[in-house]
User: Fold these one by one.
Assistant:
Number 1:
Amino acid sequence: MTTEVRPEQDQHQIEERTRVTIRFAGDSGDGMQLAGTQFTKATALFGNDISTLPDYPAEIRAPRGSLPGVSGFQISFSSDDIMTPGDEPDALVAMNPAALKTNVADLRDNGILIVDADEFDRTNLRKAGYAANPLEDGSLKRWQLYPINITKQNDLALEGMALTPVLKFRSRNFYALGIVLWLYGRSLESTLEWINDKFKRNPDVLEANVRALKAGYYFGETAELFQTNYHVAKAKLPPGEYRHVSGNEATALGFLAASLQLGRPIFYGSYPITPASDILHELSTYKNFGVLTFQAEDEIAAVGAAIGASFGGALGMTGTSGPGVALKSEAINLAVMVELPLVIADIQRAGPSTGMPTKTEQTDLLQVMFGRNGESPVAIVAPATPSDCFWMAIEAWRLATKYMTPVFFMSDAYLANGSEPWRIPRMDELPAMKVEFAKAGEPFEPYQRDETTLARPWAIPGTPGLEHRIGGIEKSNITGDVDYDPDNHELMVHLRAEKIQRIQNDIPEIEVEGPASGDLLVLTWGSPYGAVTSAAREARGRGKSVASAQLRYLNPFPKNLGDVLRSYKRVLIPEMNLGQLALLIRGKYLVDAISQSKVQGQPFKIGEISERINEILTELGR
Amino acid sequence: MTMTTIPLDELKPLTRKDFVTDQEVRWCPGCGDYSILAQVQKVLPEMGMRREDIVFISGIGCSSRLPYYVETYGFHSIHGRALTLATGLKASRPELMVWVITGDGDGLSIGGNHLLHAMRRNIDLNVVLFNNRIYGLTKGQYSPTSEFGKITKSSPFGTIDQPLDPIRVALAAEATFVARSMDVDTAHLQAMLKRTAEHKGVAFLEVYQNCNIFNDGAFKGFTDREVRDDRVLYLEHGKPLRFGKQRQHGIRLNGFELEVVENVESDEGLLVHDEQADPTLATILARMTYPAYPVPVGVFRDVQRPTLDALMHKQVEDAISRGKGDFKALLHSGETWMVE
């Protein structure tokens, strides 16, 4: 990684790096998410490519100083195209012993370790379960340890200000941020702007934060603590205007884009659940676009209301996580039966049951695919990155309206909360889509299907002459009347399956990055995209015959998937579950796919996938 | 979507027949549901609505079959969830007249939660709950309104749970219109269906309905024609509470208890019904049960409060009046930067 060391005018050296990963960790009250996002902003404005990952504790405010109360924010930035928030941090800021204990093992050897030495008192050490002070017992020798009296120095910087000790203490995240901004040669400008805007009504806090930030920055510059600071050059990104976008933001924006393109209003019914609630929050601010949001009494009411809205011609949708999908299953099945458009956003989290609500996992795939009574096919799309959530949210609605079917949009906590720079699309890049309702005066049967798509007509209340009844009881083909005839049921089961299958003719083929045939294909879906793609690129960089491919459509699969799978000697499928996609692939294509699973509530690291790739290549004698 | 309003006199007047579908009605012969269906079809032409602007949504159970038989838009959904679909439909299409057909099991057991929330939100729905105090479609288990100790297929030694009173549930949930009627009193039922439809906001109508197969005669003791006048109290707004063939008996309040005053000539001291009063009065009235009291039917409460559907659209309109959404501007909002 180190390419060049050159002396600067002052005593500090500047080291060029292509990529740096930093983690801020502290108590959940220490403002680490804020420090992280401010650093991200300064870095984005500088022009690096970025990937971030917040790591929240499940408790809103766990006891101060405790291990469960630790909150973290990781950012990776690079002069190259990057796809993950980084495997191992190059630098860790730990604001207390608990943050040190829960994070230090991830820090790379010889990495920079900045700690607030003032917080390492007996009480905090005990809360973190340290028998001896790790700053003194030599246990941190693997790393470049910088014990800094952040709290005390910050107090000094705020001397003379009429602030309570608590408020003073709260500004020390800016002190720490100041140090790190200096260390990586970032400007204070965007953070100062933010502070000035955010605290304009509270001049004391504003001044305290500004003083803290500057004091930290100047400390970095003047203290002879750090021998070097680091420089990561601008990345070469496609030209255009950029912004940051998290997966959940992009999802909400994508739904809105779909609504505007289709010319139909959104009705979003939802019940608060981590990590999907942000979509509800975001959409509820879009009222000036005609968006209707409804916080229902429970998950079932949320999806029921969405189906009712779809019956009326709106874009009825709901968002939730795995436990909510379980509750909604019966209603989703109703939408399958009555063949109305419905989009269900499943922002997956670690299960089973309540599991680990703030942690990521991809364990809902089989639930979404099969978790309903009867033969109940639905379409499933899965974005690969935070910004891809925008495009796949639009795609979910294109399919739902065109095929009159429920469509699952499967994201996860990692995509939802992770963010990346996004080249803002131009309006003419949005796909043209339209909705056609059944018209009064034209021949109408509720289940008369379109010959190509097999979709039934969308006949909405208010249309004279098209009064009809639908429901969950089996329908007679064409007329939609209640029908218990055995042959009709068999026909309808096949028609519903065939309708979803025909979506295959309407979606792009799966694209492979790397050789079109060869030793190994690494196939995945959802958020492991970044780690998988990076690991495959790394392997190719070492001259290996390794390709990668991302499934953004999980039901139906892209048409060419079988051929692609059979073009490699081995297929590896990394996913954050015990092999759910692998099970589908093996069952459908009879390919002896190798499953790589990880269920730690944390995303894959590039290194973990590289290691597995190497093992397989070794077995093949490569 | 906006509806073109056609002046009523330009419409071909609709009749009961216009609301009859080609579907064969499949309730057991003698079921009280036939009467309710007939009264619904009779009053619909008087609503001044076009068929295409009316929607019936039901859950699961015998009552929930009704939408198949009414020539409007209809949705026979899943058990307990009719109100959720109706809420989404009405919220997104406030110009439609949306009816919810449910039963004591569908509406108070599996769907009890949704009932509470639809009531408190005051969404402009017409909710008709057929109360036969039994599970009919599943062939005879006790329901949340079955009387304590009732012997049924699933309670051979008698039920051990206290029944719920749908009227008091609706009142407790702040429903703005709460009424009760009976399948056998067709004139009263028609009048109540009309009031239910006319009410702006959530309207809750409980209908005592006889299940002649699994709970025959559940209400016979007071609804039979011969005894009805003496055992049913017809609530009328602004009038003293009186019952009996010659309206010779009255009801008065003694502390927090109601008491029957037999053969009383003067109205003085009798409780006067007020549909707009605090729900406490309606709740006390609803505590009257046969045989200790005559059973009250009619409108318990009828008040006005802004509806969920109207409030939801008002927020949208207000937001648009402050500045219609500009998607391009939204995408470019917040911090952005140029890459050359």
Note: Chain A touches chain B through 71 residues (CB under 8 Å).
Number 2:
Amino acid sequence: MELTRRAFVKSTAVALASAAAAGTMAGCSSLAGTGADSAALAGDTVKTVGVCRFCGCGCGVIVEAKDGKVISVTGDPENGSSRGLNCVKGYYLARALYGEDRLTKPLIRDDASTKGTPDGLREATWEEALDLVAGKLRDTWKADKSRLAFWGSGQQPIVEGYCTAKFWKAGLLSNNIDPNARLCMASAVVGFMNVFQTDEPAGCYADIDETDVFVTWGANMAEAHPMLYSRLTARKLADGNVRHYDVTTMTTRTSASADKVITFRPGSDIAIANAIANYLIVNDKYDHDFVADHVQFKQGTENLGNATDDGYDKSDIGQAVDTVEPIDFDAFAARLAPYTLEYAAEISGVPAEDIQELAEVFADKGRKVLSLWTMGVNQHNRGTWMNHCIYNIHLLTGRYARPGDGAFSLTGQPTACGTAREVGTFSHRLPADLVVKNPDHRRYTEAIWDLPNGYLDAIETPGFHTVKMFRELSKGNIDFLWSAHNNWAVSMPNLTRFLGKGDLAGINDAFICVAEVYPTLSCQYADVVLPAAMWVEREGAFGNGERRTAVFEKAVDAPGEAKWDLWMLMEIAKRVLAGEQIGGEDAFDHLFGAWYDADAAAFKGTDREVCASIWEEYRTFSNPSLNPDAEAINAEAKLKMEAKQLAPYEEYIHNHGLTWPVREVDGKWLPTLWRFCDGKQEDGFDEHGVETYGAHDKAGGVSFYKSADQRPSVVFRPYEPPAEEPSEEYPFWFSTGRLLEHWHTGSMTRRVPELARALPEALLDVNPADCERLGVTDGDRVRLTSRFGTCDITVSTAGRTRPPEGMVFAPFFAEETLINLVVQDTYCPLSKEPDFKKTCVSIEKIEG
Amino acid sequence: MKRKKTIAAAVLAGALGLAALGGCSEPMADTGATYNPGEPPLMPASHEGRYERLGANGCYGCHGSSDTAEVLLSMATPLPADHYVGGDAATRAIDGPRAECITCHPVSQE
């Protein structure tokens, strides 16, 4: 595989810019140091390397600190993902650390009846808070393990997530741990596993610079992945022949660069995708060689109904959702046959000729096509299926895993990939793509964690996924919940139920521990609030959407008594596991003693040394040769664990991040940009992987060596309607999502004055024609009501999005608006990811 | 040709001068806000809808280096050198990924 070298971000230009910027700063700063440890001299400014803590783009940053305070955050030209670029959130990161109300002391609530109010929390010592949390966790654990839970995050740095998973899975033998990443990319994960049997994007961000046609599916990159959207528009500017099709339910900022905006009826995207696949087959415009060499065909369980009720997962259909069976090409074509352009047009409201035009884009082998998608596809009652349908088109046309020709699920959070997925902080996972229900995977994990053979058999059954966890909480079936790096009281769907306005008991009776940096709405439901160090107040690492692992160095100390989450975890684990044994040894020491001194209540070394020590253990999962027992299991069970090989810790620092698999070639660790694509490792191709497991000279120069029989699965998935559709009672579709200035629930970004000024409140975007019918105008207050709940919000016809008639949109960042009171918690039956995009609502003007 | 060079030099000097002062924080004329090094200024509220209508060219007209608009005369904040191709205002071309102005310079609602 050869790359066409196209001018995009000129590294020389970026380097010059950086030099100019550095030069101007010399006016009030001395020479940069090499890390926080050299920051001792008062008055010096110290530059450290980091990575932005907001979205999944994973932009590299240079952090400058002076007198113990971060004073500026600029782009890092040496980071391969962002090449010096950032968005407004990233450039204001320094201010996000210094909101006036940072939490600096542990807080305890003595009277549970004050939950849900800003009052009732008092200051406490760490000793008192830790004893209380650990005591409650231990009591719950000893009484009934099914009644405890940890809700983590795609923002929990890698080694912290690793230790949390190890504590929960090996220490407590519990699978009741799940991350907020369940809310954003679980459908992408199940799609990857079903199609490729490996959870990873094959492509990388450089595909954006290489492609000829962009197709965005249910994605508002301009707001949610700003740096990548800037690269998309730069690619269009650089070559006037580049095209962009925006396939969406409403006009957004991302539509601005589109040559054609294809607006479809919510939920009908599967019909469109199937019509494209059908068109390609009927008109013989698919890639015969690629299909013959690489693809197998399947169909699966259909007529799934909807996962709205608590009993869905255990129902007959709920138990059958993962079942698939092989079919041949003709049978696959026959299943697609009903999806004519006309049929898809009827379901979707998109003119047949527009669908045909898009199909012809995929048919044209003279041009490269890159599909990009985000939450419109994943937060979908058939999210997993829609992921399948996009891969189906790309695999039929030989457009996958090739530079510029790919299908790329853009992940939402800074380390949803690095921690939630790669470490595996899900209720069904073990580290490194391993799953609890597979005996070989448990043996392998036992080998690395030095656990007795069969020790992890106790967790062979997956625990509560996120929605289940909060449903059980609201029903009074959870006694202990610990949450960190998230704000569930704002971000969960169907808050009417989960905040105790539906089932009253749960939230007040459960003991809830919230680790936080600012007083969020979740803190109002906490029995204990633990003040956490934020971002570069400790060292950490994230894994972004293109498989890039990057370290952010510690730049400054945390304020007041705020502590590293990892320290909290160690101190609570130490107390809970006191007196317990694993293999005849003290349980805590056995699991965590390599980096934590329980008696001294302190880490064994600096942040850097601790992170490196934990990383080296974690890295063993993808480097089985480091552990003879693991190596033997890997060989015998053919786990191919080194297929996702990670490098030694220092390599990530020296290289400002690396994309895995990282291969050692002649003493140098080389990243992989284009996975499964044959070519030289030094050029970013997967030379080592293809050579070791795959085959050369296959169609397209790619080899899907991690897939069963080395053949990804093209699975027929039919169109099935949304969980609910507009009715007389609830006549509007309601969709929600992020907007540029505010990260998720705004707990950090709303404390940055500039970001707050740019986007002060959450508005309901309404089509002007609907406003007229409703008798409302810009600035009017309306009540939004769904089957699930209600909230009040201000109307705008000049907001960020331009929904078509019959649809409205509001962002979810504002706790005073709390639109998730209204949003359904119906989830994709396969991925258990909720559908945040298609709640049906009524809109009523509030007089006065 | 000579004029172009002069303007480019002035723009660069302006950008560098402002940034050097900005290194120790400098209030912006248009919003009164104080920005630290590396922090992109917001567009003032009067610019609402401008980028959506005109795109980067609309911004460039007042903030960029050209024959028809002189940033120093118009008192608009000049594009810093790193926003140009090659880090050089004389190119009069915005570095591609920097052309999505609103990604870093949202409009103040106040």
Note: Residues 55 and 413 of chain A are 5 Å apart (CA to CA).
Number 3:
Amino acid sequence: MLATRGLRQTPEEAKLERLSRRSFFKGAGAAAAAAAIAPGCERPPQEVQSKRSPYTFLNADEAAFIEAAVARLIPVDETGPGALEAGVPTFIDRQLAGAWGAGDDLYRSGPWQPGKPEQGYQLPFTPAELFRNALRAIVEDLRKANRGSFAKLKAEDQDAYLRALERETRDLGGVPSNIFFESLLEITIEGFFSDPVYGGNKDMVGWKLIGFPGAYANFYDFVDQHGIAFTRPPMSLAQDAIGTVHVHPVNAPRTAPKSQ
Amino acid sequence: MATRLAEVDAVLIGVGLVGTLLGRELTRAGLKVVGLERGAARHTVPDFQAPQMHDELRYAVRKALMQDNTKETYTFRHTVSETALPMRRWASFLPGTGLGGSIVHWNGQTFRFQADDFQQHSRTIERYGRKFIPADVTIQDWGVTAAELEPHFDRFEHLLGTSGKAGNLKGKKIAGGNIFEDPRSREYPTPPQKEPYGSAIFRKAAEGLGYHAYPQPSCNLSQPYTNPEGLRLNTCTFCGYCERFACEHYAKSTPQTVLLPVLLKDPNFELRTGCQVLRVNLDSSRTTATGITYVDASGQEVEQRARLVIVGAYATNNARLLLLSRIGRPYDPATGRGVVGRNYAYQTMSYPQVFYDESVNINPFMRSGANGTVIADFAGDNFDHAPLGFIGGAYIGEIMTNGRPIGFHPVPPGTPSWGSAWKQAVVRHYNHTSTINVHGSSVATRQNYLDLDPIYKDAWGLPLLRMTFDFPENDIRMSAYVTQKAIEIGRAMGGRQVVGAPRKRPYDITEYQTTHNTGGTIMGTDPSTSVVNRYLQSWDVANVFVIGASNFPQNASYNPTATLGALAFWAADAIVRKYLKSPGPLMSR
């Protein structure tokens, strides 16, 4: 549900609110129906419904690391929710499972040679391969050191472990740890601040935190009201920012004139 | 075996800004023109519509509108002694692809280069002496003057509807405009855009220091405008999704909004998309082009014969096409001989930041691509370089374009890069920081150039273009001087803290700087130091014209698009009025 913060709701917001309420009741109805199944056929009683959608790329060990790590990179604190609360692990999972994870923005021809940092990324791994190799190596590393899982470490030990990844270049399944850390931090910030349609920035918490209005399309009347506090709630791609459909306004001649 | 298609009057390689302008001029002259575009056809409706266009992840971060680098990228190294490696992801600069070209995702900054820019070599010698030019610097005159280009600048601005304020109308200086500009024949077609908060603070500070602030000339329009083609543009809404995005409002001047709807209806024009041009074909004498060979959208090789070939791709790709077609002698940095790939230049940028108290709401998201206020007091040769020992300069401006938070979340130096302290600093400074842009020139040097890579190939098996570049000492000194001036203005802007550093070596392709790559097929009046003559006609193959920022012998302090547009009109004029009447070289070798 959208926070209206005392401002007038637009018709779009009202519609969105109605929609989300309707889908909530639909879900509740399904749960009631499930409860009416004959004794003996029911599934084991479920805990409270999972807070996130199921992962399609990350396995349980990887997910546990990612959830704990992003919660340290952008923690929940007095300023508001952090990356975990914003659903960033879901964002990361979907990115790695999709075209970007498969390397759809990478030139992938060899030969593969190490270069200077200013020549950019030169590893042969797609993002999905990079995360899988590094995450597997991290889980193994902690197991070997008898430290258990990253998620079970104390917050300060998690921070120290992450700082070591950031500083060092030790090998994580072919991936230097600093490259993995950089990739993890980058995708965490992307997940925290990108549109909620991608699975992170849940309820636009990242945008609300800093006061970014999102996909909002028109500041013409505000831009010369210097220093105005813009407090309207942000807007996601899931909403129509203008509420209008553009028609083609071009009044071009039917045939091109031959001379000016 | 390639399919061979019947000869047409002219073929355009690329249907971006250059292809669209030339297509219109040539079809109007009665020619049958085929336009070949490697990317997809795309139009404001339905391709650029909101809210989907307002997606930072898809367009700004994952760069959905850019050249498909999985198929075709560049390799890069700093010096000839190193091995160039492929740019595996875009970052430093962003060439576009698709109908309308890179201009679809531009910001709309529409500056004219200055008279001294076009004659940088001779004016430098005249004012400072021959010894003033460093030994490695290969700047040269363009072979065309600001006065010759004025009517073409004027025509370009009126086609696009540019919003701005004149500073020199027919020789009469006008306060509030750019008083350093060369005489213009008319006022801008539309008035300046509204001035955002940070820009207004900058104006006050700059004027207080005695500088001449003026509104940045913008192709995000300040009011509705109907251009000479009968196409109507709308008022820009300051949505903050301009560069790297396409405009859904018909408020940014692009081929789609100013010309394509007319061109595409012309029966003399045929657009073919999904066509990757492999080379320009020459006859056995190698002095006449017979047409071009391309691979069509279904993967079939096609030979299109043509009487006239316009090479109008992105700057770097123009240079590559000539090298792949073996037109003109490739440049050799060891000897300094050869021309194709010579004088590759860039832009020398720096970005001081002013951090304010939380009471000052900068509202970085209420911006347009080309809004804001600038000064040209340190651009080009507008100041005395004699005691400074460098050539060139920069304009300085508060011209923030957006507050999109994946890319923009400024924090002061010393802030940790993650954790609660980082998060709190982002919250504290996001809406209370103003960025100043120092947009610096780039001299050409003997060591910076383009050639074909010996190892890496594109998806069609052809060599990638190799870029050898690092910032010349001259430009490092220029940036040190002008960035300091920008920091002084920043200090006068009333913030708590001003942070900034000049551009330093090494050039880093992982940091976005600008998509202002110039040179490689430069223009001139001497065939031993230029690829095309002053009409942008190949010295070697008279029915090939090469048009783009690749013609710039070196890069100036300003954004290149208006100068590129004026050059395109200048070349089109020479083709229509001179070449078509008597096909052959327009200048003797």
Note: The first helix of chain B runs from residue 17 to 28.
Number 4:
Amino acid sequence: MSHARPVVDAMKPSKPGETRTAPPRPPDGFPSQGNYRAYVAFGFGGFFLFTVSLLVLRAVWALGNGEAAWNRVQASFQNPIYVIFHALAFLWLSWFILRLFRLFPATQPKRIGPFQRPPDALLVAGLSGAFAVVTLIVAAILWGCA
Amino acid sequence: MAETQKKTIVVTRFDPDRDEAPRQQSYEIPVEPDWKVLDALNYIKDHVDPTLSHRWSCRMAVCGSCGMNVDGSPKLTCKDALSEYGDTVEVTPLANFPVVRDLVVDIEGFMDRFQKVKPFILRAKELSVEAGPTRQSPAELDDFRQFSMCINCMLCYAACPVITNEPDFLGPAAIALGHRYNLDTRDEGQAERNKVFREDGGIFACSYAGECSEVCPKHVDPSGAIQQAKLANVIDWLTGLVLRRGEAR
Amino acid sequence: MRRVLLVLEPVIWVLFSAGMMVGGLLLPAWALVMGVAGPLGIASTATSYDHFYALASNPLGRLVLLAAMALPLWGGAHHLRHLWLDFGGLRSDGLVGTLCYGGALLGSLLAIVAVVRL
């Protein structure tokens, strides 16, 4: 537990002290234990945000090039690697946004003028519900039902 | 009569005059069921090894002196029950700080950051005594009250992965305190503090790990303060682009 | 390079926040339908050119697609840059940050072109 690699320079004082100090050690458990794990996984959600939006761009660009180009891109998405990637992206990004919504209330000021911040549980439930509704609507539109 | 329980406390030792690097030393001691971790350390110092060095003072979680890593987590050792740990308990100095000796860390780096955020009321023009007391409603007090509860124990710094990797980061307690003053209706120093917040190592270096709030013994929620400060800072930055503002002295 | 990124930090943060929200709200549905159900043949209309062109080419469709393509790039770029820092990458932060945000900027510009030319 305490055998982590020491880092240099963390919390270094502006004036050197009078005795030699031992170098600081990084937090135990980072990155793979406890809450750090969720934090790193959340950060890695950035990879899916970046790549999925680039794949949307790829599809929309092909759309602009005409039906043949569009069909070629759609055929390429049938590759099992793409399907697994998108399935993983769906799960990871859903977890990502629900976690973000859980953390959201604390990021807001307690009060704006006369309006108090709503109770945290209410905010989280509302935002999570909105995610479910938006996902259903967007999925329905894309699916061709709406 | 019940047999006294024993625990092994594994402590980091470091004497800069004798040791090349920190080492660990084990002490097997009798413990009482109601002890905190600090009681075990004080027992070691009083009865076993008087050379052990550690900071402590109030024994009631208000002074912030006794912060250490216990079994890997930053804790106030005067508040942390020993009974929650197994037969072996590892006590190391707070992570992310240079170590002066044994369990004592160099906190000057924190004091530097503390001063940078100007944690006091800043006024463009001082009010005269004749103007009377400054009135503040309970709602206005409530806006910043939580962030004023910090006891400067620095457990948050020991938990923060950004502190580990970005040497200039102001850190949770300093930012929460700066934000506390930005929220205070008596204060006029927001523009000045927000400029400090935008410097290298400022608030935008925070990546919202949230571990600081997890370990805070006073429920200050510094990570909430930092995220609130980011939004306030963007608004301040935008208004600063448009308006030329005077600054508090 | 780090200095430049520091000056732009408030703007980047706003784009990043918007990117997380928009990306988290819109991209899961996209991934599920266009990435899984469509290619597997479960949602055959989804992959039809006529159907998607009709959705994408109206003004609202263009706007939503632009948001879904451009904003999450900033969310992703910021997260990735900070992950890099969390694993000790401070010394190359200027380069990595520039690559991340540069990529997001390029993608955003391409996204604008992509919706305009539909």
Note: Residues 45 and 52 of chain B are 6 Å apart (CA to CA).
